UniProtKB/TrEMBL annotation:
Residues 684-902 form the Histidine kinase domain. This is histidine kinase. Belongs to the sodium:solute symporter (SSF) (TC 2.A.21) family. Its main location: membrane.
Length: 902
């Protein structure tokens, strides 16, 4: 295939990845974060499948049979362990703002900087060769697709070597999406999305080749298997019976279980980039499924390749590409190439980002901070510095890997180097597992265990490949160091019969674990070690309030603490973050000395940016710290825990109390209101009764005192007495009436009525009054209004009341009153309109209240009790109707009531 097509395709693919990453970051800015999706999380974990899986698995089948499956079976069957181990690690990292595996171990054992350095170095040593073989895979696949020999590239001067340029492009990509934000709380969403997409692409590419080989070149699985059974070397590799092999299986499975949790790239994606613990639930089934699918066709491709290219004419690592190429399937070859490219680039990107965080937070920053001269130099802008360090580390890691590839890795197959890397990170297992389940693990134990394990790892696994590349004499391998045969790297202490990986893993892990246990038991932990141990092991107890518990004693000036934080977050953000925290925890920010809780919080924030060991150094540089005893630590954690639950209970109670109080208040308001209404009512009634009573009494006294009063005068007085008595009894009747309505005792006596008749009868009743005032009364009936069920007498009472009001408020002679009925859509509207005084807008609502007159004593009181409209309203309400008024002062009023008749 033409090299320019391949270059173009690679570059297009890289820009596509840029696009994905960019889009994902934009989505997240818009609040539609992609990483909240558990499937994206599970897919991103498939970064586990590197170029080693893509090309190397097939190669390994040819040389070692189905042994390759161990590294996939291990993680699959051990997935449930994640729920126990990984969930706990995720919880701890969130509470402690831990961003790398080096930081995790350093933080657990008293935020020890040396441990951080050791883990980081181990990762660099272990991972560089692994990255190197990815570069090798890219370079090889490129050469194969071009139909050249892969080794040609190795000998080229780097400027003429295309893979060098890929490496540069990758560095740029990694820098852009890996170091834009350096705070732990802000994740690399673009990067995660890219990795998830790459996982899909490599899977589809590999399965496509598999289908092509199995169903187009051969006739399905059985065809390949039966053809392969005729080839002796092949059939031999699939028989699985010797004890060596089963122990190899066991060790490789164990190794991959450890690797899938502790490889920096896995830790980065599974722990640091995790946004929701629940995503593990999806990962637990989806990730093994992914592994199964990507492995289905490994054996058919391996057998197919072996049948197609007999006598080792083509290296088995290259079958995946070589087969489509042989059949001249250009498009498929290109797609396969891109699949392998995906596998390699995703691994390089994540691994490099994870390593760069460790290098900056665990190697460089602590060194700068410990050296006061360096610190002065960079003091002002550490966050800028962190970025520079990370970017430089990214370039350095990729370049060093490139150099490693050019000098050493080029001479090895893909798989063996990967297993060496796995074994390197497996050394973290005792310190991590011990650290999260056993409070007794100490700094000393972890340090010595890790150191010893690493030495054994280096001697048994790393050294051989360096020897193989010619940097050390071969005699070490053959006769042991110093010629002592018990020191042979592949048969240490005379242990033979294991493959080199199992052998190295066995010795290194054995001594690592023994040292860890022994020195942990022998040493006593410091208070900070102890407090970290308690938090890590009992994280589920503390995770909710770790933020509010401050395991720190000492004095620090608030200014210094704030300045420190500004160095990393910028002044505005630092101020905002502190303000939010202090508001949430009810801490005052106006004192000169910083609250210990604030100091702890700032330390945690810094840990998220520069690692816990560096954060520790920074905080102690601006404060005077006091030693705090182990007992105190535990009591702080305990008290903040009980405080938290007490607080919760208190909050719950106060909420309930608040509710009860407001209910009580409401009831009280209502009571007060009715009480006032009752008072008003009583005083008004008394007042209304007193007026006629006074005149009755005065008039009867006059008549009584003047027995010789003349008859006409006496008649006049007695007439008035009778009228006033009438008014009195009417008022008392009305009050009693209203009381009946209000207490709900008043019942309607329903019969079939005709609204026209009711109005006519009412007019008849008041005919005399209207005639006296010479007021014109007109009735406009609606002939279509149907008869309906109602209380006839009560409705007459309403109309009489409205009409008598109208007569009362019309001027004599000029008055004109129009009564009308309308039947509209099931409702009868009855209105009484006059051209009298009219009602002020402010009072229109109030006139339906009882004794409206009493509300405003300044208005000139017309005759009447002020109860008529209130009673009318009750009557209409009992008929499920409504009554209202439209009026304008000086022009007249129109009272209408509506009753539904259906
Ligand atoms: P009253 O027995 O005093 O008439 P009502 O409850 O029937 O008691 O009326 C309350 C008040 O509403 C009256 O005092 C008067 O101020 C006002 N009002 C009622 N009808 C009219 C009307 N047609 N024109 C002007 N004001 C009216």
């Amino acid at each position: 295939m033409n090299s320019s097509i391949l270059i173009l395709a690679s570059l297009l693919y890289l820009s596509f990845l840029f696009g994905v990453a960019y889009w994902a970051e934009k989505q997240s800015e818009k609040g539609k974060s992609l990483v909240t999706n558990p499937y994206i999380y599970a897919l991103s974990l498939a970064v586990y499948c590197t170029a080693w899986t893509f090309y190397g698995s097939v190669g390994r089948v040819v040389t070692n049979g189905i042994e390759f499956l161990a590294v996939f079976i291990g993680p699959s069957i051990m997935m449930p362990i994640w729920w126990i181990v990984l969930r706990k690690i995720i919880r701890i990292c969130k509470a402690q703002r831990i961003t790398s595996i080096a930081d995790f171990i350093s933080s657990r054992y008293g935020k020890n900087a040396t441990l951080g350095v050791l883990v980081t170095l181990m990762c660099i040593l272990g991972i560089l060769p692994y990255i190197a073989i990815q570069i090798k895979a890219i370079s090889n696949s490129f050469m194969i697709a071009m139909r050249s020999s892969p080794n040609e590239n190795l000998d080229k001067f780097f400027l003429n070597d295309l893979s060098f340029y890929f490496v540069i492009a990758l560095s740029i990509f990694t820098i852009i999406f890996g170091t834009r934000k350096i705070d732990s709380t802000e994740r690399h969403e673009g990067m995660v999305a890219t990795i998830a997409v790459e996982s899909i692409i490599k899977l589809v590419a590999f399965v496509t080749v598999g289908i092509f080989v199995t169903y187009y070149i051969f006739n399905g699985f059985s065809d390949i298997f039966s053809k392969a059974s005729h080839i002796p070397e092949l059939s031999k590799s699939f028989i699985f019976n010797s004890t060596t092999e089963s122990s190899t299986w066991l060790w490789h499975t164990l190794l991959s279980v450890m690797a899938i949790m502790f490889l920096p790239r896995q830790f980065q994606l599974a722990v640091v980039e995790n946004v929701n613990e629940k995503h593990l639930n999806t990962a637990i089934w989806l990730f093994p499924l992914y592994l199964i699918v990507i492995n289905i066709f490994v054996i058919p491709i391996a057998m197919g390749g072996h049948i197609l290219f007999p006598y080792n004419t083509v290296n088995s690592d290259e079958y995946v590409l070589a087969i489509p190429l042989r059949f001249n399937e250009k498009l498929l070859t290109l797609f396969t190439y891109i699949g392998g490219f995906s596998a390699a680039t995703s691994m390089i990107i994540v691994e490099t980002i994870a390593l760069s965080v460790m290098i900056s937070n665990n190697l460089v920053i602590p060194t700068i901070l410990k050296n006061s001269k360096l610190q002065d130099k960079f003091g002002g802008n550490i966050s800028g510095l962190v970025k520079i360090i990370r970017r430089t580390s990214i370039v350095l890691i990729i370049l060093l890997s490139y150099i490693y590839y050019k000098t050493i890795a080029g001479h090895y197959s893909l798989v063996s180097n990967g297993m060496v890397s796995f074994s390197a990170v497996a050394q973290f297992t005792p310190a991590i597992i011990g650290g999260i389940f056993w409070k007794g693990g100490t700094q000393k134990g972890a340090l010595i265990g890790l150191l010893v394990g690493s030495l054994f790892w280096f001697y048994t696994l790393m050294l051989p490949s360096i020897v193989g590349a010619g940097f050390f004499p071969q005699s070490i391998m053959d006769h042991g160091l110093f010629g002592w045969s018990i020191l042979k790297p592949f048969a240490l202490f005379g242990l033979k019969g294991m493959d080199s990986i199992s052998h190295g893993l066995f010795w290194s892990l054995l001594f690592n674990t023994l040292c860890y246990l022994y020195f942990s038991i022998k040493s006593t932990p410091s208070s900070i070690e102890h407090s970290q141990a308690v938090i890590f092991v009992d994280i589920y107890e503390y995770s909710n309030h770790v933020e509010s518990a401050s395991i720190w004693r000492g004095t620090a000036y608030l200014n210094d603490i704030q300045l420190l934080l500004s160095n990393f977050l910028g002044e505005r953000k630092a101020e905002k973050v502190l303000r939010l925290y202090t508001q949430k925890h009810n801490i005052k920010l106006n004192s000169e000395k910083a609250d210990p809780q604030v100091v702890s919080y700032v330390e945690k924030l810094l840990a998220g940016i520069i690692g816990s060991a560096s954060a520790r150094i920074m905080i102690s540089s601006v404060s005077k710290e006091e030693k705090i005893s182990t007992e105190e630590v535990i009591s702080i954690l305990k008290s903040s825990q009980s405080l938290l639950s007490a607080n919760k209970e208190l909050k719950r109670k106060s909420v309930a109390l608040e509710k009860a109080t407001s209910e009580l208040k409401e009831a009280n308001e209502i009571l007060k209101k009715t009480d006032k209404l009752k008072d008003d009512f009583l005083s008004t009634v008394a007042h209304e009764i007193r007026t006629p009573l006074t005149s009755i009494r005065a008039l009867s006294e006059i008549v009584y005192d003047n027995p010789d009063m003349d008859v006409t005068e006496r008649e006049y007085f007695l007439g008035t007495v009778v009228k006033e008595s009438d008014r009195l009894s009417r008022l008392i009747n009305q009050v009693l009436d209203l009381e009946k309505y209000e207490s709900g005792k008043q019942k309607l006596i329903l019969e079939e009525v005709d609204m026209q008749e009711i109005v006519k009868d009412s007019i008849d009743a008041l005919y005399q009054q209207a005639k006296e005032k010479e007021i014109k009364v007109v009735f406009l009936p609606d002939r279509f209004a149907p008869r309906f069920m109602a209380d006839r007498d009560k409705l007459i009472q309403v109309v009489v009341n409205l009409l008598s009001n109208a007569i009362k408020f019309c001027e004599p002679q000029k008055g004109e009153i129009v009564l009308a009925t309308h039947y509209v859509e099931g409702c009868i509207y009855t209105s009484v309109q006059d051209n009298g005084a009219g009602i002020d807008k402010n009072f229109q609502r109030l006139i339906f209240d009882k004794f409206f007159q009493a509300e405003d004593q300044t208005i000139k009181k017309p005759k009447g009790s002020g109860l008529g409209l209130a009673i009318s309203k009750k009557i209409i309400a009992l008929h499920q109707g409504e009554i209202w008024v439209e009026s304008e002062v000086g022009k007249g009023s129109k009272f209408t009531f509506m009753i539904s008749v259906v």
